[in-house]
Every structure is written in structure tokens, then in C-alpha cells.
Amino acid sequence: MEKENNLDENEILLEVKNLKTSFFTYEGEVKALEDVSFVVNKGETLGLVGETGSGKSVTALSIMKLIPDPPGKILSGEINFNGENLIKKTEKEMQDIRGNQISMIFQDPMNSLNPVFDVGTQIKQVIKKHQRKSSRMAKKIALEMFKKVGLPDPEHIMGKYPHELSGGMQQRVMIATALSCHPQLLIADEPTTALDVTIQAQILKLIKNLRDEMSSSMLLITHDLGVVARVCDRVAVMYAGNIVEYAPVKKLFKNPSHPYTEGLLKAIPRRESRGEKLKIIKGKVPNLITPPSGCRFHPRCEYKMDVCSSTIPPRKYIDENHYVKCHLQF
Amino acid sequence: MDKLIEVKNLKKYFVKEKGLINKERTVIKAVNDLSFFIKKGETFGVVGESGCGKSTLARTLMLLLEPDGGEIIFADKNINKFSKNEIKELRKNMAIVFQDPHSSLSPRRTIKKLLEEPFRIHDIDIENKILKQRILELLDIVGLKKEHLYRYPHEFSGGQKQRIGIARAIALNPDFLLLDEPTSALDVSVQAQILNLLQDLQKKLDLTMLFITHDLGVIEYIADRIAVMYMGKIIELGTVDQIFSNPLHPYTEALLSAIPEPDPEQEDIKIKLEGEIPSMINLPEGCSFSSRCPLADEKCLRTEVELEEKESGHYSACIK
Predict the structure, then answer these.
(1) Which residues numbered 265-304 in A keep a CB inside 8 Å of some CB on B?
(2) What is the pLDDT of residues A171-194, one digit of tens each?
(3) Which of A1, A92, A121, B192 has the fewest beta carbons under 10 Å from its own?
(4) How many CA atoms lie within 13 A of B249 on its CB side?
């Protein structure tokens, strides 16, 4: 796929509009995504942060149309990628898009690599399938990619099985595979959560450099606000299936407007707060089979008003690229 | 300054055997000659990356693994030669909370049963009515409610399960609590709740804590003194201020620079440490960090490094 006009910075690559996804289980309908809207511009990195069960991964899988159906279903909304609505695409068309135009890195590299094939075979398979290259070409591309992600002695690593590599090296193999077809959008789902800090710093730097080099866009999913601050241009904060705040990264950290964002930032232990109690968000993440009425955050919110439990808050734009879903006045 | 625990030259080795006829023996020195002490009432932090021997240290200290050398002195008694009965008695006084609350609670027991266990195991003579009272009190201390009593572990969230784990650990009023990555499996907002709870408990029950984690933010917030481990050794030890404001060992420095600070105004990601964490099986001679150290030279490969006091109470194992 040739990328055109990617010099224009404000060109929209991916636009998700009012996305609603549910899972129909024996216990009832799990309303995993209620109303998710955001935009990823070309060459930009959007961070998707939130706690366990907030719907970060479901958002990613919905974009890839990899939601297991049944029990999952995308109920409404649009996912416009390069102006085309992915929801209307057939499975066959999606297979051409996955890997080629949108690819994904998962949290746990050990579980995403096949233990019975060497890693060389696995990356070559991807290149052969998506780019329709000969084995020889595929090998050449694979070696190049391995070199790019900083794997020492690529020729030798090609013949290794996943268990022979460390976590950091496995993640490098995953990144090489995901980027081997030059995707326009890379979705990274907690790519460094399973790694140690020193290795995490190396992998983050690598992802950042490769993204710039290949001028891809990225959707980075994480629960670590530190990672967001380091890598992202913009942030979407998720809570219980909604994006509650969407802002440029500097603005979000300086001026968090949604009570949940504020709570999250204050819950991070730092040295300055030694001896003091950490500020906590009381209660716990709601059950999404019976989510709270109105604003889904209201039972845990310290600024709760009457209107919060009855009406779903609208998106309020503080300025054109900063919105908050909350009844409070800003 | 009262010491509650003192560890002298503690060693724990694992032996790996390979081959049937020509046996090849490799020794993994998971805890390699550690010495430190913990004062009464303080929180002592141990940090390090995966595989550096943090959890082996925890298990050896609790005598869940038999040490291969050295001494552990707890409340002025040398405990590593204790008999089985003495160890059981000791466990009333030393408790441990594990990382994974899902696998450390039996799925087939109610919370009441789980909390009764410590009393039953130690044959504590207590009337059923008073026991129930005590259990309700424990639930209250850790922030759970009466109606949780007859529920099973799967009905609780991760944070609540960790609270149950903590309630079990403090059931018999121990002096010493060892926490092995107690918040690593939890979300930040839940982590904050657990950290607050632990600090409350420490004050209320006069606990001495050993807190093991890989999260430098958490350790900076909660610990009084910190030991940094690398490949089975303590490479730096000091107060929080000494370690975070004036790290002496290049590894500590690299580790601190690798933390992604939640502040977008800061400069780009700094990488002070290249390469992978080496395996404990083939440690380099001399300083075990020399293979990754930016300052390493010939001398580091030849000299065995020891912890040295560089300033008052601040130790570092580096010849540079």
C-alpha cells in the first residue's frame, strides 16, 4: 500500500464515531462500549488510558473487527479508516486491511507467538501472506526488520523458538512482525506492561523511533500514565465504556478536567506525597451488565449532582481538541 | 535503634542438573551473600528487576526455603536453626502477603473459613463467638463488610482479595509483615487504596514491613530505607533520599532514569542501560553488572565487589 499525502499533519487517518459494542452472555448483555468517539490523525500517537475493564482492548478489537461474535457484537457507530467505514467491510476485505494497513502488538509476547515454529518462519509467513512476496524476498525483508528493531545477529535469531528469547526480545520480534508490512496504523495494546523498567524504556524508545521513521500513526493502549506522558501526542481517558476526557497530552496533565482523570493522576504514588495519604477514587469499577444510570462514573464521583444519575452527560468542548463528558461547568 | 531483623551473609543457591551420565551441574546463586538489617517500625524496601532474587530472598527470610548459609536473626534469636515447632511458633509473628491474590486464596472456602485458618492452624484456644467477633474486626480493619463473610473469593475484585490476604496476614498480630509485590496486579486507583491501608495498619499495629516491588514509584512513596538488588546481590542500600537524590551505583542510576515520569514536559526517554538482563547461570566474573555497565573497565572484571559505606548509612557496591 502506498501512503499518500501523509505530509499533511492534520489529515484524519482513523475516525471512530459513537461506537457501541456489547457482549451477550448468559448473565446478560455486557455493555462494554457505550459511546466511544475519537480521531487519530496521520503521524500522530493517541494514548488510550484507563483501568482494567474500562473497554480499552474492546475498542482496539472493534477497530480490527476481531470481536468474537458470538458473544460480542458491534451494535452501532462508525469506524472510518481513510474515509472508508470498516464496519461495512466483509471479512475477506478486512483480511487485506489487517496486517497491511492496520496491525497490532499485544501485551504478552509469549502468548502471541506460536511456540512450535521458529520466529523467522512466523514473520516470513506474515510477509508472504500480506505482501504476496516470494520466500526469498520475505526472508530479506524479515532480516531487515529484525535489524531495525535492534535484535543482535538477526540471521541467528531467525532460527530461534520463542522460548529461547527473553521477554524484551520476544516483544522486539512482535514489533518487527507488526511493522513488516508498513502499516498506516499500529495498535499497541499494553506493549510494555509485561516488561521490566529498563527494557520498557528501550522498547518505548524503539516504538517511538520506528513510528517516526515509517511515519505511521499509533493507538497506544496502556494503564500507565507515565508511558502516556512519554510517548503520546493526545490522550483519551476511558472509564466504563466511555471516553470521559480527550485532550492533547500536555493539557491533560496540566489541567485534568474530568473528576476521574483528576483522581487517576492523584492516585499515582510520588515522593512529594510521602507521609500523606494518597487520594483515592472510592468504590470500584461498575459491573457493565447493570451499569449505573446517567453518567457511569457518578457513584464514585466526589462532585456528584442530581442530574448526574439521571442524564448521560454530553460531550463538552473546552476547546476544539479537548472535550470532557461531564455535567460540571468548566 | 532497635533491630527487629538482621540478616548476615544469607545465601540461597539452586542447583540445576543436566544429563544422565555426564552430569553437568550449574549453580544459580539467587541470594548471594546478603547482609542487611531492618529497624523496628520501619518500612524496608527491596527493588530490582525480574529474576534478581527478590522473591527468593522473601521466601528464604520466611524460612519457606531453607537457607544455604548465613544467619537470620529475628528479635535477637537466630532462627535458621529452629526446629519445625519453633518455626510454626515463629510464623505467628512473621506474616507474608503474596503478589497474586487470586492464587493465594483457596477458591473453595468462604471468607470466614479463610480468616479462621490462622487461628485453627496455630491451635489458638478461642471461643467460637469471640473468634467471629475477631474476624469481623479484621474485616473492618481492612475495609470489608460483614456481609462479605460468607462469600467465596471469586466474588471479589482483585483489590478486595488483596485486602483479604492482608487480613489473614495480620490475624495473629504479627510484629513483622513481608509484602511481596502486593500491588503489582492491581490498577493505580486500587493500588492507592491498598497503600493507604498498609500505612494505616503500620501505625495502628506497630508493624515492621519489608516491601518488595519492581515499581520505583511505589517504593519511593512508601519505604524508609531501600535495598537495590541485581543478580542476587544488594548493590546499593540507603535511605529513600540517599537512593533517589544521590544514587551512587550506575545500575541504580540507570533504573531511576528508566521510570516513565507522568509528566509530559520532561525531556525524551533517556536510555542509560542497553542490552538484556543477563541470566544468573553465567554471571560475569567480578562485578556482575559489568556486562551492562557504561563505566565498566578491565578492573571491574577482575575485582570482586562488596557493599561499602560511602556516606553515613549509604552503601554501594561499585569500585568506581
Answers:
(1) 265, 267-271, 273-274, 277-281, 284-285
(2) 889 999 998 888 999 999 988 887
(3) A92
(4) 29
Q: How confident is the model at residue B267 (pLDDT cuts 50, 70, 90)?
A: low
A-B CB pairs within 8 A amount to 125
pLDDT band at residue B285 under the 50/70/90 scheme: confident
Cβ-nearest to A264 among B189, B199, B273: B189
The span from the CA of B215 to the CA of B223, in Å, is: 12
What's the fold here for domain A12-101+183-325? Rossmann fold (3.40.50)
Residues in chain A: 330
Annotate chain A with three-state secondary structure. Answer: CCCCCCCCCCCEEEEEEEEEEEEEECCEEEEEEEEEEEEEECCCEEEEECCCCCCHHHHHHHHHCCCCCCCEEEEEEEEEECCEEHHHCCHHHHHHHECCCEEEECCCHHHHCCCCCCHHHHHHHHHHHHHCCCHHHHHHHHHHHHHHCCCCCHHHHCCCCHHHCCHHHHHHHHHHHHHCCCCCEEEEECCCCCCCHHHHHHHHHHHHHHHHHHCCEEEEEECCHHHHHHHCCEEEEEECCEEEEEEEHHHHHHCCCCHHHHHHHHCCCCHHHCCCCCCCCCCCCCCCCCCCCCCCCHHHCCCCCHHHHCCCCCEEEEECCEEEECCCCC
The interface residues of chain A toward chain B in range 166-205, judged by CB-CB distance below 8 A, are: 166, 168-169, 196-202, 204-205
Contact B259 A281 (CB under 8 A): no
Give CA–CA dist A188/A204, Å, rounded.
Answer: 11
- Which residue of chain B comes nearest to A233, CA vs CA? B264
Task: Take residue A111 and report the three cell numbers written for it.
Answer: 502468548
Q: What residue segments make up the domains of chain A, in order of their start?
A: 12-101+183-325, 112-182
Q: What tens digit of pLDDT does each residue of A245-289 get? A: 999 999 999 889 999 999 888 888 877 777 778 888 887 788 888
Residue B82 pLDDT > 90: no
In the structure grid, which three cell numbers stand for residue B63, read together?
Answer: 524460612
Closest to B196 (Cβ–Cβ): which among A223, A228, A278? A278
Give strand pairing partners of A119: none
- Inspect the interface and report whether the beta carbons of A202 and B217 lie closer than 8 Å: no
Query: Closest Cα of chain A to B218: distance in Å?
Result: 6
Domains of chain B are: 92-223 (3.40.50.300)
CA distance A52 to chain B (A): 7
Chain A CB within 8 Å of residue B45 CB? no
**B246 at interface of A, judged by CB pairs closer than 8 A:** no
Scanning every residue of chain B, which has its alpha carbon at the shortest distance from the alpha carbon of A270?
B221
